[in-house]
Amino acid sequence: MNDIFDADAAAASLVDARQTGKPALPLSPSPATTRDAYAVQQAVMQRLGDPGGVWKMALLGGVDREASILPQAALADSGAQLALPSHAMVEVETALILAKDPGPKPDLNSIADIRLAFEIVATRFAAAPSPLQAMADSFNSVAVILGGSVPHWQDGLPDRLGIALTLDGQRIAATEAAAPLADVMDFLGWLSHHARAQGRPLKAGDVVITGARIGPLPLAKARLASAVAMSASVELTVQGAEAELGTS
């Protein structure tokens, strides 16, 4: 039995799951380190032939700062119609549109816009993955839907935006997590260093999603998801609860 971790073989399995919608078997051997997980992320991008430019801030095990490079093809505009698996979940987030590589000490001049956004998450594995397997699979990210610009972000943002989330017109009772802008900017400085180390330095136009303010919450059989915060809005239509993984 060969226990040497093969990032390219793992990526092949995950790319097949992306393209066919058929769940991937658990990676065996499993990634043993974050270095393994990042190697899978990079190998997935190479196999997809996607330029990237989309980043997800994440906490491994809810504690350690990590990230994922996401395909440019994962981006969609508000109002998009996406085919999603029945177990897909929605998160309401903010997305930073970069004006430049922010470097180690970002400020608001590094940002071109801050948008309200949905992230859709759904594991591509047949069984619940370990934290490192989920990290290898872009932390379960399926799609990012960009909504409107949050007003007056240039003056800073409140820790909570007063987000209202509705599914099929029904308001969802959910607690919004506090996301101080200072914490986000500190993480962005970390991401700038990480992206350079991955050979993908941040640049103008890159999109960075900053973590769930609400969710993840099951979409279940909902066909329309919408959220509003400070007059910014984002909307998504789900084509079918039993559809293939990924975007249409």
TrEMBL record:
InterPro entries: Fumarylacetoacetase-like_C, Fumarylacetoacetase_C_sf, Hydratase-Decarb/MhpD_sf. One of its GO terms (cellular component) is cytoplasm. Keywords: Lyase. Pfam families: FAA_hydrolase. Residues 71-215 form the Fumarylacetoacetase-like C-terminal domain. GO terms for molecular function: 2-oxopent-4-enoate hydratase activity. SUPFAM superfamilies: FAH. It comes from Paracoccus amoyensis. This is Hydratase.
